[in-house]
Fold each of these.
Amino acid sequence: MIETLGALAEPTRLRIVEALGRRPRSVGEICDALSLGQPQASKHLRVLRETGVVEVEAKAQQRIYSLRAAPLRELNLWLERYRRIWDERMDRLDDVIEGMKEEENRDGRKKRK
Amino acid sequence: MIETLGALAEPTRLRIVEALGRRPRSVGEICDALSLGQPQASKHLRVLRETGVVEVEAKAQQRIYSLRAAPLRELNLWLERYRRIWDERMDRLDDVIEGMKEEENRDGRKKRK
DNA sequence: TCATAATATTCCTTGACAGGTATATACTCA
DNA sequence: TGAGTATATACCTGTCAAGGAATATTATGA
């Protein structure tokens, strides 16, 4: 759980996770997509793998990395304990998401209910 | 967002956040509750404050720290993008957030976004 | 004003970690 | 088997952050 946070707290690794969130990718694809050196990518992927954030599947001489469900689920579960805080006085969550998706002037006016 | 992750990715700070999740506390209370040295507590609280995770309210000569909603909400929002991954075919952890995944329910795979 | 309590800051040392480069390993195919 | 491709590891170096101890700051009350 805290290892998950640590793994995600690094900018490059977060970008890798977001890239893998779209679809699984090989190391080379990750390097290309993120303009990363290959050793750097491998090292970050190692961290992500050792913390259980990603998993690998060998395909010929490539390694296909993809996200694992467990740590994200765990993170969500932890966050859920604080729902009463982050959901305070707002509407239901989907409304919040809806509102933020439209990305209107975020700092302009506060929406009152 | 990534600053939030970084702030939470430190064991002591995570414990502080969890303590504040129950109720706001003064620095001294945090030191006692977590067996922390006072300068250490203050320094971690500074990080948490500068990343917006907590806020302070002065009360006499004490400083009462409490959690802020925004970063937790933001973190939840980020995590929501990966719900399709971490929620894969498990039982529902909660149904509140579920209004936005109508499109995903079939077995059609997404290759390209 | 002074003494005291509560908290913040500074300085120091040390360890972890990320980037860069070079090199090693593993797999495939001719 | 050897060449080529894809990925992993080792080594070095600089930076940053955390813990510890001492000290500074700020507010309170007598």
Amino acid sequence: MNSEPAIVFSPLKTKRRFEEISTKIKELILKGVLKTGDRLPSETELARQFKVGRQTIREALRLLELSGFITVQRGGSGGPIIENTIMNTLSSSFLDAFKYSNTTIAELTLARIQIETQVLKEALKHIDDADVRALRENIVRAKKMTAEGMQAFRANIDFHKLLAKASKNHVFVIVVDAIMTVVANLLSRRGEPSPEESSYVTKSHERLLDSIVAKREQEAISLLQAHMIEVEKLFPRKK
Amino acid sequence: MNSEPAIVFSPLKTKRRFEEISTKIKELILKGVLKTGDRLPSETELARQFKVGRQTIREALRLLELSGFITVQRGGSGGPIIENTIMNTLSSSFLDAFKYSNTTIAELTLARIQIETQVLKEALKHIDDADVRALRENIVRAKKMTAEGMQAFRANIDFHKLLAKASKNHVFVIVVDAIMTVVANLLSRRGEPSPEESSYVTKSHERLLDSIVAKREQEAISLLQAHMIEVEKLFPRKK
DNA sequence: TCACATTTGTCCGTATGTATC
DNA sequence: AGATACATACGGACAAATGTG
């Protein structure tokens, strides 16, 4: 009767030991039993406790490392440490997906305009003094860097992340972070933006921040959208 | 003069062999030299070619596997195969980030409303016959499943992914896919949605699709937003 | 159905590199 | 600077899984 059987059961691919160990430790971290900064036992000790070989432990640690739950330090008093680097792994996954799907610059800009406009509206509702201070600091830092002839595009990218933070919505923070990683990758790939370009971007941010502080919503939205269209021109043209 | 030295160079943490091998193979895949369905040599053969031990190869394969570039099959004529599972890894990263940041249901719903409304607007511009067909099929499938007393919430989640696809913007496709994974996780965690609930959701989708086909933008937007607010009530309350 | 070959999964022992004290 | 502790890496071996003849 069913031309296509429904997917009821979970994949259940494989029960490899290192996967079980990885998920077990992952659960302990998510439940809060293991907290950031805590040190996991050494590989040999973990192997003893789980009653498996060291190689199995090593592969489990690779999974945890790439999933963004731990980092591993070599040398004396080193070892696996609980550390949240999920945003890094999420961003690089997003970047891979972007590359793999052959997404165009135009699509990226369009999505940025749509999403960040909503983020801006939320930010206008929930922004507080600490946010404004952080944004102002960001601009000062970017200005100082361009004045010294240094690259400021990292700081300029952080501006958008700070704006997302001001929306007080974690989902926006995550999404914007991922998108800005792609933007950063595109910009850094095609050489460095010139100091004039960076300076122009920073000035745009400054005007935008003024509008936000003054609560002029429509003006802020217009500035943001115009800004992103301008930034698109900095991207590599070919492909 | 600089209170805080600028981050100019990349981290350059470690050059572990398995990382180098992993990135090398990753580049070959992204450049198109290795294509989906191609089989990589066996672990022993890879170890011979790269002149490293098998353990190193295995850890490199773990990275590639978790990054979503390959899958590994055991047994005769098995081995590593080029396969794109990036959306899976991206979604699970997003889910981890969601859990780790203690994002609330309210935040998720708000972000969904904001983002999916934009997606809907784009979909209204670019939707074509194939999209409509796929969406109608999705509804038929969901109805059939609820009629047979089966869970239809996977199908109902696919509806939103298909809508994102109709926007013809890959960024939206990626973002919505990630968000819907979180939604699916929240729903499946708190037991299964009852058949009545699933049925209600499917009917909402049907009305929404009618509005889309008729190009009644405002009505479609209203339906979508009301729909998501209703769905929020199905989520687990506590925490 | 059954044996076989291939390949991953796992373990052990050992050596080397690296960071800390 | 030396000792220590740890991850990193190598090689060999066997078990388990899976497709093939």
